[in-house]
Amino acid sequence: MANTELSLDAEKSANPENPSSAELPESMMDLLQEVHVLRLPMVTRFRGITEREVLLFEGPNGWAEFSPFTEYGTAESSRWLRAALEFAGHLPPHPGTAAVPGAEASGHLGESFVAINATLPACATSEVEAILSRFGPVGTVKAKVAEHGIDSLPADLERLREFRRLFPTATLRLDANAGYSVPEALTACAEFAHFDLQYFEQPVAAVEDMARLRQALSERGLPVVLAADESIRKADDPLRVAELGAAEVVIVKVQPLGGIAAARSVIEACGLPAVVSSALESSVGLAAGAHLAASLPRTDRSLEILGENPACGLGTARLFGEDVVAEEKSLSPVDGRIPVTRIVPDPKRLEALAVDPGRFAWWSDRLQACWTHLRPQV
Ligand SMILES: [Mg+2]
Fold first, then answer.
1. What confidence category does residue 256 fall into, taking pLDDT thresholds of 50, 70 and 90?
2. How far apart are CA 332 and CA 281, in angstroms?
């Protein structure tokens, strides 16, 4: 099935220049005209998946991506849709939020590149140098730890010692993906504190446990800054993290928070330094992340913890075997950074990577269900 078969009469479309809820059509396809659903193979299994399905469309301001994970329900996924519609220019920013920097031409932004962290997976110590050398100059590295919980600690420490031997001045972050209990995290932090960490992402799962851990670290005088990642999945989560004192840094993603403007507003409201990360998107989705990252305020606290040019977790294009554009036009990091730009997919790739008609129908239904949920709120 050609994606264009869903295209409907252009005359029925809402005015994208100034849409209001009353003018927005009930049918998503009356607004979007044409969508593409692609299946992107992953180079390595990540988050339990080996391929990623993404829906792309073009709006007045450019291309945007709608790619909630397939198991997500309608209410949650509709926030991802708001983000995509806003970045494409089909929707104004969420009421009460700041203007959308990403909706303007990227030339309006003060910076044209954002720094990207390299990722060091749980690998053999002998592989550390080779893995990081593929990334280019090593500025900031995020090392994954706790793959098998506290049992991984001896191997994690050996790998970190090798890392510090090779890169004594690089900025180091750790990410446990909630792999520890609070007592285990305390044991691990007592060791990790020797490695001059910038911060430690989500050592434990529950936001209340993050707060408990932070308190215990402070009582023991362990200088480990905590960052909340998995604790933040929707727009008011950063506020809860701040209220509970669960972390000093928040990791934010554009789509789950409902768009660039909503993300900026919640970051301002929670008052914590933020690091932008990807939701495993194609280069089209990564572009929205880069726009958010380039527009974040540099507060005193942000400068203190993250420095002048905080690295973002937007280097995930390398996890994919295929992208929507050729490698040199993609948002794969070069020299540890990516440009703040908009991506126009290659038409041949849109065709070659298209899903089968069954999956296209599934995504079309999902898109409409999310729009039906979202439309009364915009
Ligand atoms: Mg993380």
1. very high
2. 12
Closest CA to 251 of 337, 176, 193, 152: 176
Report d(CA 199, CA 117) in Å as an integer: 13
Out of 101-105, 110-114, 121-125, 163-167, least confident range: 101-105
* Distance from residue 295's CA to the centre of ligand 1 (Å): 21
| Whether 153 and 77 share a structural domain | no
Residues comprising the chain, all counted: 378
Question: What are the residue numbers of the active site?
Answer: 144, 253
Please state the rounded mean pLDDT for residues 319-328.
Answer: 93
CATH at 100: 3.30.390.10
Please report which confidence band the pLDDT of residue 46 belongs to, taking 50, 70 and 90 as the band edges.
confident
The Cα diameter of the chain in Å comes to 66
- Does 58 share its domain with 118? no
Compute the distance from residue 231 Cα to the ligand 1 centre, in Å: 10
Distance 274 CA to ligand 1 centre (A): 13
Tell me the residues surrounding ligand 1 (ion) with CB < 5 Å: 175, 201, 229
* Whether 100 contacts 291, CB under 8 Å: no
Distance 268 CA to ligand 1 centre (A): 21
- Please tell me the distance from the alpha carbon of residue 172 to that of residue 180, in angstroms, as a whole number: 19
Could you give the C-alpha distances from 117 to 100, 139, 140, 225, 278, in angstroms and in order? 25, 7, 5, 17, 12
Q: Which residues contact 18 (CB under 8 A, 6 or more apart)?
A: 92
CATH number at residue 271: 3.20.20.120
The answer to whether residue 252 scores a pLDDT higher than 50 is yes
Domain housing 132? 109-339
pLDDT of residue 7: 36
For residue 12, what pLDDT band results from cuts at 50, 70 and 90? very low
Mean pLDDT, the chain, rounded, equals 89
Q: Could you read off the pLDDT of 146-176 as tens digits, one per residue?
A: 999 999 999 999 999 999 999 999 999 999 9
Same domain, 165 and 250: yes
- 3-class DSSP state for residue 287? helix
